[in-house]
Amino acid sequence: MAGDFQFISIQVNEPVKDKATRRRARSHALKKALERKRKDQQRSRTNFIPTTFKDPDIDPNFNDPAETAKPCTMTCTNPPAPVYSPLSGALDPFQTLAVDSSRLQALLGDYRARQAPEPVFSVAEELAFQSFRSVFRTGFQDPALINAVMLTLAFAVTGGSLDRECLRYQGQAITYIRERMDSEHDAASEAVIGAILLIAGVGARLGLKPQVELHMGAVQQLLQICQRKSIHLTPGIQRAIFWQDLNSSLMVGSKRIVNHTTFAPLLWTRDAFVPNFYRLPPGFQSRSHIFEGEFRAVLEDLHALQCIRNIPRSSHIDAMGMLHINNHVASIQSRLKALSGLSRLQECCRLAAYLCSMTLCCKIWCELVLPSHMSSQLLFNLRTLRDDADAGAWDGDRDADLLVWLLYIGGAFAPVGPVRSGYVNVLALDYPHISWASLHQCMRQFIWSDDAFLMPVRALWAEVPQYHLRGVGV
Question: Domain-by-domain residue ranges, the chain?
């Protein structure tokens, strides 16, 4: 075989005295020995050696210096070091991604990018059922998807603004998506749908309603193709479509393309074994005439979610339990979004109920942009309601306890800034005299969980100037 042998002229029975010739012979022998060794390793799949690194998402003892690192990836002895993604659990030992692998690693190591909640997929332990792998059944090989992922991560690092890097990833992702959309066979896949959803999510954060509707319209077309061609999509991507559609609709008012009954994996029904969970709490029960029909049913289901949250050790629910809770929340929020023709007071209660559904059972959901957005909407409606009462159109004193619950639920999840200050100002003017004991008792008459709400509500209460002696009731 060509290249296997190298002929060196020497005299028979005479030692090789020329140093250059000896060096060439020795070098050639070593080269062939290494080639044979590598081929043997490749055939036996032993050309990977374990390496270790500490990753806070993988090693639970990351912050404990007494603990040693755990093996969590493999490195090929021949190619460069691999890219390991905690999002996908997939290896890319040959650096074949359509983006800069080192930049991907840097973004994954950035706390702002890794902790940014994203309804399409999650790296949070609480939402392990919605991991990258379970949603897409693949790694980062798809160029449209990986560019959309990079866009999402980089967008989170910038704090919600499109810089040059974000625009580059967005442009690349859209280019690849358009190429795939030319063929129904290539377009109808979790990767393409996921890439579009991620781009739509960035558009929603920026308040770009036309762009969001354009992207979600494309997802709707792909769903129709999948249905026509009997293409099965993963439950994870179906769940991603539902949440991105709902969240975007809440953020920018885009038209919804699905609801809680569209996909089988999200279907939810009441648990017949705990019928007492599904009732109105006392504060709402005394105003049952305000909450009729579907609104009443949703509030009953929200109270059941509160009961689940209050079960001891419920914070350690496994993945299947979290799936059921996720479906429970999906049903509540989708139905709340569909309510229409509400009075101003009912609208305030709808927004507060939405806030409770997002913050009761999962800390990660509290990190979404939506709670602060809903809090802002609630403050606007409460101010309008207060003006109506001042004009004599509505008696606010009759429902003072309900208004206190609305104000504290809304303000507790508002970030530091104008909206939170707005809640503090209203509370200081109208309800500055509430002791913590009285406030706590008032809040418990409605949707309430000490585990989920006590700390943020008490923090807000401490910010309200107490102009009167504490200890006086509402």
Answer: 1-44, 96-262, 275-463
